[in-house]
Amino acid sequence: MSVKIRSVVAREILASDGSPTVECRATLDNGIIGTASVPYGVSAGAHEACMLLDGNRNRYNGKGMQKACANVNSQIAKKLAGQPVENFSKIDQLMITLDGTPNKKRLGGNAILSVSLAVARAAAASKKLPLYTWIRKTFGLKYPSWSLPKPMMVVIEGGKHADDSTDMQEFLFSVHGAPSIAEAVRWGEESYQSLKRVLKTQGLNTNVGNEGAYAPSGLSSNESPLALMVEAITKAGFRPGRDISISLDPAASEFYDKHSHTYILKREGKGLTSAQMVGLYQEWIRKYPILTLEDGLAEDDWDGWAHLYKAIGGSVRVIGDDLTVTNVLRVKKAIQKKAINAVLIKLNQIGTLSETIDTVRLGQQHGFWQVVSHRGGGETNDPFLVDVAVAVNAEYIKVGPARGERVAKYNRLMAIEQELSARPHA
Ligand code: PGA
Ligand code: ZN
Questions:
Q1: Which of 22, 83, 116, 227 is most buried (most C-beta within 10 Å)?
Q2: Nearest CA among 348, 142, 342, 168 for reference residue 254
């Protein structure tokens, strides 16, 4: 007998930066409940699904999400009541159709995603399956085994995530040489702690930004974190490039000037063309153990991306984030332009679980790495993204090394590792 949705109820909760976000509780007719919440970014791409905000300046500076919650509690609740959860994709499709816009701006991507994830959780619980197993089964994902995602930890952050740090947004440790996930997490965290000592020795402060990474003021250049990171890895007892490599997410849309078509690096007092940016990255790749480069250029600089990929795609993974926004259409365009060989996956960029899995599938058909990511600004304690990453055998999860909403993800990943080692054929 099929299990049906009895109700979906949304409410505002607080995200990690103290502004509201949406949490949804889905109840099935067998009494099983699933709850999920959605994050948001501070350097969100222009092509992401719409995050519906109230815009009422008298509440949370316009950032309330009562409208999104009301859309769940009225229109979406009415549409989904009585729907069987076995046909999960249909539930997402019903919401997409009900919204009727290409970027979910009528009901809000935040409203729709909260329901999609809460129903998924309830459906998994109803089947007594771990969420990651349920995702695999539900979407017919077939892999030879479980291959857990490795940590990609943000350890220095700047751009929109901090004041007076680098122009480039994120510098990360990608841990790939460890014998287990728990060890990989330890190696990453110990190198992050080691970086703190390196920064202090240099007289730099170790205050943290949005994602729990250090955001020192007074760094001399956008390149300077790279040498500090190599030193930190070495001092922690690991081999740069062998055990732990460097990943970069400049989030270049944020410092691209559309009028002059240049990338403004304030630290260096320079404006670089797209070609000069590519030259800069090539130089860094020669000097440092760089594994991946995400959003090295702006989200609509397609010709620049094609040039970038040609120049470095043979030696590093070129990741689209703002470029591709977890959207099949944008990933298709990136394939056609030969712009990337890896995709950042953020559930709220597209707004349903089904569409997220479609994007992963498309990328994997082309041999692209999958990096499932947290959001910079408003994260929640919900580790849903980790179950997605495990379900799709993603190569990495990109998550900050500290703060409760970030470590919740690593803690979930380590719990899954333990669970799977007890039941490897789950
Ligand atoms: P966000 O940035 O603040 O938009 O989530 C994170 C990223 O660019 O990866
Ligand atoms: Zn990014």
A1: 22
A2: 168
